[in-house]
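This section describes the prediction task in plain terms. A model, or a person checking by hand, is given the sequence of a single protein chain and must write out its three-dimensional structure as a string of tokens. No templates, partner chains or ligands are provided. The sample shown here is typical of the held-out split.
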Amino acid sequence: MFSDIRGFTPLSESISATDLVALLNELFSQVGDQILLERGTIDKFIGDAVMAFWNAPLPVENHPCRAAQAALLMRQALIDFNTSDVMQDRPPIALATGCATGQACVGNIGSRRRFNYTVIGDVVNVAARIEQSCRHVDYDILVSNSVYEKTKHEMAMLEAGFVDLKGKSDLEPVFVLVGNQDLLATSEFQNLEATHNALVSAIRQRKPQNQIERICEDCVALAENMEPGLRRFYFALSGRAADFRSDVQASEVFFSHQSHERKTSA
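The expected answer:
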């Protein structure tokens, strides 16, 4: 997982260095607590960002779901932080969070005199690039296809198209993380998911733009009271048609929403 403060430069220019350090320490304390609560390992704080991983040094059962849940808890912690005394008379802070899961190497890495317990591997780069794609998608939490596959029965997520990750030859399908299993089970989210899938189908079938925009408006109306952050996602989505029309999805079945139907228990 990588999580980065959006708009950090304007924030750093508006307050003194001492106040900025105090603000960051308080923010990272609250955000970091959510990672630890879900049994994550905080790798490091990198300026205005935090890097974390799961399943090491001790095994963590269902760790992709734990990471996704931590991201949702971080979202709520940020809401509380923005209304705290620390942020009085200051513009609210936003976070961009990217999650991916896969094989990686973990251990003490560095020189003989100084080293860190950290993780390296392709999946680390993917998570970092996905976090950077939050700005393009205009949503605060994005997860990789691998996270989606392992958590789709436990987390409320929606397709967000393919993104071009720097250093990767293939486009990566990503999903917005909307909520947890409680939200997933609601009729409100199921209605939104069905309308969203209709929107994706309309884009891929190259339906008229006014029809696509109309379905977008329906999605915004359904999402308004569920997750207000989806409003910006849908406003940006109508101009991101190319992200859903990649040649990759024509030959790969895994990103078709028909192949992601959840199994319901009796």
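For orientation: The first strand starts at residue 2 and ends at 6.
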